[in-house]
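lol ok so funny story. i was supposed to be doing the assay writeup but got distracted and ended up predicting the structure for this chain instead. priorities right. anyway since i did it might as well share w the group, maybe its usefull for someone
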Amino acid sequence: MPSAVPAVLTPWRWPHFTPDELRCRCGCGRIDMAPDFLDRLERLRAAFDRPLTVSSGYRCPAHNANPLVSHTGECGPHTTGRAVDIRIGRGDAYALNALAPALGFTGIGFAQKGDARFIHLDDLPDAPDQPRPTVWSY
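and the output, tada:
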C-alpha cells in the first residue's frame, strides 16, 4: 500500500497532477518531490494549456539504480524530487520545449522514437560535471 503524502506536500496544491502519478513506481510509495519544482511544473502546465501526463516522477535511489529504469544510478535527477518525464511526442514536444526554459527548467531530454515518447524536465543547478542549462536525446 502506498505511503501517505509527506507533510511537506500537504495540503496538495497542484491541481493538474496527482500524488499517485508522481510517486515512485517500485512500490515503496515515496513521493519526495520538491514543492518548488511542483510549482514550476504547475506553471508549465498552465502555460502549455493542455494536459501533461507524467510517465515518471520521483524515483527512490534503489529504483533509480535499476539499469532497466535509469543509467544515472542512486543519485540521478529523479531521486532529487526535481525531475519528471512527460509522455509527449512530436509537435507537442516541440511546443513544450519552447516553454520549459523560460520557466526555469535547466535539463531537457528527448526520447522521440517508438511508442515510449517522452520529454524529461528538471531544474537542477549548474555543477562541474553537469553544466546547465543542457539538452540531450536518449
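The chain has one domain: 7-137. Helices lie at 19-22, 35-48, 61-64, 90-99.
back to the writeup now i swear
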